[in-house]
Amino acid sequence: QVNSKQGGSPCKEKQVVLLSPLGRMEISGCEAGVHEIKLPKMSLLPSGAEPSVACEVCEGAEEMPEPLQQCTAWLRAYFCEPATTGTLPVPAFHHPLLQRDSFTRQVLWTLLKDVKFGEAVSYKQLADLAGNSRAARAVGGAMRSNPMPILIPCHRVIRSSGESGNYGGGQLMKEWLLAHEKLQKEKLAR
């Protein structure tokens, strides 16, 4: 249960399942915003990073609050028509971590705003962008606690050495997401 700010009453949480090229993604939220995006646990990934037309809500589509509609529309675009994500609204977030003022929140907002599709940034660069150049380790902690993977693109944060680094969805998923974005960006550039 997530408590809303007004009077601390629990919000009416809804869940939807989005079938994506990566598998079943569980998205929860309420009228106030998206609570969390849960990535599938993966051992096998789709071959190639081609956009897939198979990306749709398979459970919970009825009575979806607007933030969940926006979230699923954004994720569908991310996988199927990445060029359109920039024109879509980012849904409101209703997760405690993104409500209170903290360095983690600052890092996640900076990542959302400043690191664009097909780009990558090191933990240290992101710490600089978020206003604390010595906090690269704290950036790693912020990435681990990100409740909105893909939407807040923690997969775009890599090690200074160029290695991809850790990812909540696993190494393979992070590499697939980075390859997907690189391929789509190259297509757009042609």
TrEMBL record:
Residues 20-91 form the Methylguanine DNA methyltransferase ribonuclease-like domain. The keyword Transferase applies. One of its GO terms (cellular component) is nucleoplasm. GO terms for biological process: DNA repair; methylation. This is Methylated-DNA--protein-cysteine methyltransferase. Its EC number is 2.1.1.63. Keywords: DNA damage, DNA repair, DNA-binding, Metal-binding, Methyltransferase, Nucleus, Phosphoprotein, Transferase, Zinc. Residues 105-182 form the Methylated-DNA-[protein]-cysteine S-methyltransferase DNA binding domain. Belongs to the MGMT family. InterPro entries: MethylDNA_cys_MeTrfase_AS, MethylDNA_cys_MeTrfase_DNA-bd, MethylDNA_cys_MeTrfase_DNAb, MethylG_MeTrfase_N, MGMT_N_sf, WH-like_DNA-bd_sf. It comes from the Eukaryota. SUPFAM superfamilies: Methylated DNA-protein cysteine methyltransferase domain, Methylated DNA-protein cysteine methyltransferase, C-terminal domain. It is found in: Nucleus. GO terms for molecular function: DNA binding; metal ion binding; methylated-DNA-[protein]-cysteine S-methyltransferase activity. Its cofactor is Zn(2+). PROSITE patterns: MGMT. It is an enzyme of class 2 (transferase).
